[in-house]
Amino acid sequence: MFRIGSFALRIVGFLVAALVLAIGPAAARDLRVGTCQLDITPISPGLASAYIARFGVPAVVNHTDPIWLAGFSSGRSARDYHDRLWARGVVIDGDGGRVAIVALDLIGYFRNEVETIRALISPASAIDYAVVASTHQHQGPDTLGQWGPNVLTTGIDAAYLDHVNATAARCIDEAAANLQKARVRFTTTDTAGLSLGLDALDDGFGVSDGKVLAGDALLSPATGGRIVDPRLAVMQFTTRGAPHAVIATLVNFGSHPESLGSGNRDITADFPHAVRERLEAEYGGLAIWLAGALGVLQGPLDIDVEDPATGSPAPRRTFRFAEVYGQKLADRAIAALSRAEKGHPAPKIAFASTRATIPLDNPFFRFGRAIGLNVRVPLFTDGVPDPSVGFPFPSPFDTIPQALGAGLQTEVAALRIGKGGFLLLPTELDPQLGDAYRRLMRGVKHSFIVGLASDSIGYQVPFAKWDNGCHACAPFIIAGVPEMCPVQPIDCDTVFLNNVGRQVDPAITSALGRVIEALE
């Protein structure tokens, strides 16, 4: 399935030509924008009083006890709240169609849930394409099934997913119902010098490369094998007329929102919360955080940032660190916007999306599907959902169940809004790939790499960097005898453990090439 969206493509070509000859060039369609912000914080019976005490608003229970926190290890339950989780969205209507971008403060969200959200959007909203991305914060509810009370038990509350789906769709409907004439402007800056560089893993760009894979020195000689993406891209909408009040500011950067670490048990959006608070204090309007190329463990766990209140490094894995780090990222965006060009009132809009089918090579994922860690996500064989389960491993591992569907279906898309180009990807992609993908976009001045967009299928590393040891040793690891695997040493860190398989990179790259070509 391949989809191209453009208002112009809906009009039969020869009629367009005839109209142009008869009445001259048509006026560009004015840009209109609407925003929405709805609470998706999980509230359980045991934490309802804590929610009321923290935020001073009524608590409507939408989750059972306990709330299992996603992102690090299993068995981590929520005990309190620091800040709320949101669905934050913008609907953009203009010369080329009407698109919605919604960011959820979640670890990730599978495509089947995104399709449900799309189906729930009111036809009256007339949305041509909806992007539902996740910020990938590590201090919220398990929505993928990997972080329950133990590794064999899901942490998903199905009713909570239904609540998120309905809320995200309502968010889009609210934004579409409140469109106003707008202008859009873009800027791109970098994060050089944002962090102090005190740690060997800290290059000073505000992220550390916590997992340097074999071959990086050859693939990135200019950085000595360090893999970082220092670009921070910003899109801002303002009202059409003076005083050009800010409607929304979207910021895109590649860093895992995990600054609180695994010891935290208070629900929070992590540093994107501080980014958004700072931007909204500066401009008003709504601030939205979009995850970038944050694969290979790009994140703030091993960096230091100066606390302006003390002149010393903010203590790591604290809410103060998250606040300072987020504010520094926001300040980079603010400084760049102060130099940005005037907004455009009628930019061209175009989008294209396509489905990508990827073989599921990961026996850990197959095991999780087989034991019911997430029963709502189908596998496919020959394009048909395949729920079958079997025992394909030879003895003595023939008691380990595996989902037998051939692979999964995901989505890749591209969006252009005037001088801004957005690549919408379902992965946590290696910054090397993000850099290469940016160069594929021709005719755009500012590029946005949006990871975990409309799906969440795990890490994407360049094909040349693939190490199959983790997947090859899966039955030994599941059975508790990793030392018996003939492949040693086993690299089963999260980059390969949480990875669909070797074919992710070529499949995503091929699909992306198709959607970019469709826009040109």
Helix content: 25-40%
> In one word, what is the shape?
globular
Rounded average pLDDT: 92
Strand content: 15-25%
Number of domains: 2
Unreliable segments of 5+ consecutive residues: 6-26
For the termini, the CA-CA separation is 19 Å
- Spatially, the strands of the biggest sheet line up as 6-5-4-2-7-9-10-12
Q: Report the biggest beta sheet as strand number plus sense, adding barrel if it closes.
A: 8 strands, mixed
- Structural class by SSE content: alpha+beta
What is the rounded Rg?
Answer: 23 Å
Q: How many β-strand stretches?
A: 23
Enumerate how many helices there are, as a single number. 13
What's the quick description here?
This protein has two domains: 30-347, no CATH class; 361-405 and 467-500, no CATH class.
In terms of topology, how is this protein built?
Blueprint: E1 2-5, H1 13-23, E2 32-39, H2 48-55, E3 80-81, E4 86-94, E5 97-104, H3 111-120, E6 129-134, H4 158-176, E7 180-190, E8 208-209, H5 216-219, E9 231-239, E10 246-253, E11 266-267, H6 271-283, E12 286-291, E13 298-299, H7 319-337, E14 349-359, H8 363-370, E15 380-381, E16 384-385, E17 389-390, E18 402-403, E19 407-417, E20 420-424, E21 428-429, H9 431-440, E22 446-450, E23 459-460, H10 469-472, H11 474-478, H12 494-497, H13 504-519
Parallel strand pairs: 3-11, 5-6, 10-12, 20-22, 21-23
Antiparallel strand pairs: 1-14, 2-4, 2-7, 4-5, 7-9, 8-13, 9-10, 14-19, 15-16, 17-18, 19-20
Helix pairs in contact: 3-4, 6-7
